[in-house]
Amino acid sequence: MANPYRVVCHTVSDMKKIALGIEYDGSAYNGWQSQKHGYGVQQAVEKAISTVADQEISVICAGRTDTGVHALGQVIHFETTAERSERSWVLGANANLPKDVSVHWAKPVDEHFHARFSALNRRYQYIILNQFSRPAILSRRVTWQGKPLDIERMSKAAASLIGEHDFSSYRAVACQAKSPIRTVHQLSVKQKGRFICIDICANAFLHHMVRNIAGVLMAIGMGEQEIDWAEQVLAHKDRKLGGVTAAPDGLYFMNVAYPEEFAIPEKSGTGLII
Q: 131: which residues sit within 8 A by CB, 6+ positions away?
């Protein structure tokens, strides 16, 4: 049977750029990036899109996520000579993707658009299940904390991290970013029943930055550290003097904001618990 996605001709002059919005459960993957000794979400996505385009496709994402981290609003772009409708990119990709990865939208974009470098800010949510007993169904989709957390203490501590700072104390030792300076636009802690959500938006993030912030805020919420400890850790500018890196299970890459001229949807995916 002939390939329904087959391209008739491939010429450089026909090259176009396509952006996709992707949701994935990162539980079974070694992060976003393709790897030699593991399987990244990127590999699954490139394989699926290449099948639809009937040519080898390489994709660039807005933000690389770690092992076990999920995404509701990841944005990628790729270049191709294939002629496909937006509907065909979505349905074709999803027909070739594993069930824990899904494309929600596709659109042609300007040649100047770049999924990573055109981004204005990125938003993550860290979901904590705060109850005495550990979860079963949600075990890899939330972070469980059995000790009571004080939301008011966590919120006060979080406020000290808003703004432009040197986040050296909140990044992984192996972080390869050239500068530790990042601007946190918004950082809040809210609760709904047994669920606690740390919601953070910044211009960009360092390796493990959100998980390290979550680790510090949880220690403060449990009363193990004083409220001003978050600010003290920040001032140290030394990861060795920081807190414990929180588990990846409850971390979600929510969405990316771009200049209006690109008309990129800010929300996609199925939404979160809280």
A: 144, 146, 194
Instruction: Give the pair of three-digit tokens for residue 262.
Output: 């690109």
Residue count of the chain:
274
Domains of the chain: 12-118 (3.30.70.580), 121-253 (3.30.70.660)
DSSP, collapsed to helix, strand or coil, labels residue 155 as helix
d(CA 222, CA 216): 10
Active site residue 66: yes
The per-residue b/e assignment along 189-210, b for 16 or more CB within 10 angstroms, e otherwise, is beeeeebbbbbbbbebbbbbbb
Catalytic one of 66, 110, 199, 249: 66
pLDDT digits (tens, 9 = 90+) for 185-223: 999 999 999 999 999 999 999 999 999 999 999 999 999
Q: What is the pTM of this model?
A: 0.91
Residue 188 structure tokens: 């809040």
